[in-house]
Design brief:
4-stranded antiparallel sheet; 41% strand; Immunoglobulin-like; alpha+beta; 4-stranded mixed sheet; 106 residues
């Protein structure tokens, strides 16, 4: 194999490995005025997560509020009366759970 072809293949492999870099899911929720919770999801590479599932789930595992993040990667909902946690689910290996105890006022 000539050196040009070897160099081309090496550069091609480097390009593929750069696109395979993992990005971790991130989600933050805060309590806002009006007994509401606002959550914002995204990924560690800075990309947003519009359309990603974000469900509010009771401690008995019932879905209290089914949801999806909007175009701005946020979802705002009324704070449930029951104990709950938030589940940001962007697929296998990309899940974040936030317990109600970890949600602080703005």
């Amino acid at each position: 194999m000539n050196s040009f072809l070897r160099t081309y293949i090496a550069l091609l492999c480097v390009g593929f490995s750069a696109t395979a870099v993992a990005h971790n899911p991130m989600c933050e929720c805060k309590e806002i005025p009006g007994e509401q919770i606002q959550c914002k999801g995204g990924f560690s590479d800075g990309s947003g997560a519009p359309g990603v599932t974000l469900d509010v789930i009771g401690y008995d595992e019932t879905i209290l509020i089914p949801g999806k993040l909007g175009g701005d990667s946020t979802l705002t909902f009324k704070k449930p009366d029951a104990e709950f946690y938030v589940l940001f689910d962007a697929g296998p290996g990309h899940v974040v759970e936030i317990d109600q105890a970890d949600i602080q006022p703005q």
